[in-house]
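To whoever is on call:

I kicked off a structure prediction for a single chain this morning and the downstream step that reads the tokens threw a length-mismatch warning. I double-checked the sequence; it's 154 residues and nothing unusual in it as far as I can see. Pasting both halves so you can look.
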Amino acid sequence: MKQIIVFILPLLLMSGCMSSAEPMESEEPYEPQVVQEVYDNHSHQFWNVNPMSIANNSIIEFNGSGDLYFTLELTAAFHDPLLWERGDVNYTLIYDNETVWSVQDNASITDYTFNMTNVTGNISVQIRASGSDNPTDMNPGDFFIAKARFDLIR
């Protein structure tokens, strides 16, 4: 019995020093991934003397759900005519039949950003512009260029 105690006693004393648990590996932090990216570009230049308007409706379809990151580079140049109001461009995002973001511009180069969470389904893009051209000057006719990027991230 004495021999067993001599053997068990050091085991009991050293049991706190020995650990069966392996060191835990640190988990890498979650990094969102772009699951879909869509580019939607539109432009128009007015060549007519009298004011005219154009409109466009696009549907951006997403395969799944996630957070939406939207960037828009909008370039607009509309002159001041003598007989009517200055033209402009209106860029609008519609989600679930509600306007979630809109901008109207008539003379600039501007970058815009917009973010939405928990987007499921489609986004509608509506663009409306009115403008004209003045053939008596050397300037180009009214125009806009809209370069949009939609990133769906999970």
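Update from on-call: the warning came from a stale cache, not from the record. Cleared it. Sanity check on the structure: The longest strand covers residues 52-77.
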